[in-house]
């Protein structure tokens, strides 16, 4: 396992470098200039040149990328051009809100997805299965921002049960968690159902039935355990996607998270902040994939035997 972990980490190094180069290139190819947000009305070309040189934007892109990457590898994310604050401080303020939302949504989608998928598999081709799969299909096709607006309309405007926006207390977390978590619930439920149906057709179950073991115990203790292996893989990938998918949801609910910071910085063309936000989201996907591979290797003896 240690050797497998080291190999997987070494594979992530070129991926990290490639992702950082793509992020940097795309950001600098977007039309616009952060200096426009700093100059006063009527400022001349001389002032623009001074501001451009101050933030190093007059250097070639390759040099700018090397300076930025060197700082990132040393833990320095740079200074925000428009906000004029260290990027690390802005990230430190926004990231806890995004992590809280993402972890709660992941826990919600994991629990209810596995429960619904298990019920659907146990009642295969009967009305509970058809009802759950219909709801799951609808939940997976509804856009997150539209679902968030709908939840605000019903539970905040009409019923007044939860606040419309902000992050003052736990009640402000309910609607964003539902918005982000429902899509993940649909995915986990579908994967759990398919995996349990496939695991339920394996030969070793005949031996368990022959031993007189109760069907409910067989399904929950043996079939579900085998079915959780692909579910864990999906959940590990969802770690990064939940943080990324929460970008629009945080904007809809006006939460002071990473998504709100990213959208605001994009509008201002604040290169260091946008680059740091996108790099963190990309690293979340990479680390989630790594965690999923390690957990799958720990759960499945066949994977460990192949290491």
Automatic annotation (TrEMBL):
Principal location class: membrane
PROSITE patterns xrefs: ABC_TM1 (PS50928)
Subcellular localization(s) per the UniProt record: Cell membrane
GO CC entries: plasma membrane
Superkingdom of this protein's organism: Bacteria
One of the protein's GO biological processes: transmembrane transport
InterPro entries: BPD_transp_1_N, MetI-like, MetI-like_sf
Keywords: Cell membrane, Membrane, Transmembrane, Transmembrane helix, Transport
Pfam families xrefs: BPD_transp_1, BPD_transp_1_N
Membrane topology field: Multi-pass membrane protein
Similarity comment: Belongs to the binding-protein-dependent transport system permease family.
Xref: PANTHER family: DIPEPTIDE TRANSPORT SYSTEM PERMEASE PROTEIN DPPB-RELATED
Protein name: Glutathione ABC transporter permease
Organism whose genome encodes this protein: Pseudosulfitobacter pseudonitzschiae
């Amino acid at each position: 396992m240690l050797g497998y972990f080291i190999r997987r980490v070494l594979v992530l190094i070129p991926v990290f470098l490639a992702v950082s180069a793509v992020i940097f290139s795309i950001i600098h190819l977007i039309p616009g200039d952060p200096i426009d947000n700093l100059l006063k009305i009527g400022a001349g070309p001389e002032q623009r040149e001074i501001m451009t040189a101050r933030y190093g934007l007059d250097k070639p892109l390759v040099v700018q990328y090397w300076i930025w990457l060197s700082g990132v590898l040393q833990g320095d994310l740079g200074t925000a051009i428009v906000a004029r604050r260290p990027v690390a401080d802005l990230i430190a303020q926004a990231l806890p809100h995004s992590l809280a939302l993402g972890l709660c949504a992941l826990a919600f989608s994991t629990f209810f997805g596995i429960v619904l998928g298990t019920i659907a598999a146990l009642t295969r081709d009967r009305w509970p299965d058809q009802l759950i799969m219909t709801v799951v299909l609808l939940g997976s096709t509804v856009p997150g921002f539209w679902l968030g607006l709908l939840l605000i309309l019903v539970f905040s405007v009409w019923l007044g049960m939860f606040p419309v926006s902000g992050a003052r207390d736990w009640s402000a977390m309910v609607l964003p968690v539902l918005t982000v978590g429902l899509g993940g619930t649909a995915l986990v439920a579908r994967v759990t159902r398919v995996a349990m149906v496939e695991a339920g057709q394996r030969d070793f179950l005949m031996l368990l039935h022959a031993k007189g073991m109760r069907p409910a115990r067989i399904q929950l203790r043996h079939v579900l355990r085998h079915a959780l292996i692909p579910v864990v893989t999906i959940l590990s990938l969802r770690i990064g996607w939940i943080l990324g998918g929460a970008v629009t949801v945080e904007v809809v609910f006006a939460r002071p998270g990473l998504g709100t910071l990213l959208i605001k910085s994009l509008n201002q063309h604040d290169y260091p902040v946008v680059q740091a936000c996108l790099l963190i989201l990309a690293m979340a996907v990479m680390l989630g994939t790594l965690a999923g591979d390690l957990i799958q290797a720990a759960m499945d003896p066949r994977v460990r035997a192949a290491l």
